[in-house]
Design goal:
two-stranded antiparallel sheet; Serine Threonine Protein Phosphatase 5, Tetratricopeptide repeat; TolA/TonB C-terminal domain; 8 helices; globular; 2 domains; 226 residues; alpha+beta
């Protein structure tokens, strides 16, 4: 029943947006497009460390700035995909895979990107494409067989989501590995990408108590914003 109420609440999340003058919207969109073209060029040149710094700054800009109404989650997915490539190239495979999984949750189409031009970094991402998200959790939150939480991360709405008035519930099914770390997160239904990002970045800090050696165990998590 609790999970049903969560799904019902999710369908009613607030999706009000802050008006942005048309000129500013176009200027911002063009600025982000130019920045992504530059970081792609840096990635293709093999300078992953520089690309990582540039993309971390671009991600902060995207998360902190109210997006014009015509912008979609596609933009956030592109930034996260490039950041994952840069992290993989810089030797930070764990960061890369997590951000790649967030990118796929934000915009599923990135899973079909041609990443062959990025060599080993692209291969790392392609080896970690998520399966389609389930329509319901394998087991409800708090089920007796679910791993219990040992350490918890606090979800924070990105500034752009706060400014736009985006709030609601994000339901995530994640697997817990033998070390109690969350892996392969999948967001159920379709909340805004900014909220998906906030929930998954918090989930990354969770650690679980594992009482089975039967492989990765699915657990369902509920995050509330606003």
């Amino acid at each position: 029943m609790k999970l049903q109420r969560c799904f019902a609440a999710l369908s009613m999340y607030l999706a009000a947006t802050t008006a942005v003058p048309a000129g500013q919207s176009v200027e911002r969109s063009e600025r982000w497009s130019a920045a992504l073209a530059e970081t792609q060029s840096v990635l293709e040149s093999g300078d992953a460390k520089r690309a990582r710094r540039m993309l971390a700054a671009l991600l902060r800009d995207v998360l902190d700035t109210p997006r014009p109404s015509e912008e979609s989650d596609e933009r956030l997915g592109q930034v996260l995909t490039q950041l994952a490539l840069a992290e993989a190239g810089d030797g930070a495979a764990e960061d890369a895979i997590w951000h790649w999984h967030i990118a796929q949750n934000v915009d599923r189409s990135v899973a079909h990107s041609d990443l062959s031009r990025y060599g080993g970094s692209g291969a790392t991402l392609l080896a970690n494409v998520l399966a389609p998200a389930p329509t319901k959790c394998a087991q409800p939150p708090g089920a007796p067989s679910s791993p219990t939480i040992r350490e918890r991360g606090e979800p924070k709405r990105p500034k752009a989501a706060v400014t736009a008035g985006l709030g609601g519930i994000v339901i995530v099914q994640v697997e817990v590995d033998a070390n109690g770390r969350p892996v392969r997160p999948q967001v159920l239904l379709r909340p805004p990408g900014l909220l998906k990002y906030g929930a998954l970045e918090a989930l990354r800090e969770f650690r679980f108590n594992v009482t089975t050696d039967a492989g990765d165990v699915p657990v369902c998590m509920v995050f509330k914003f606003g």
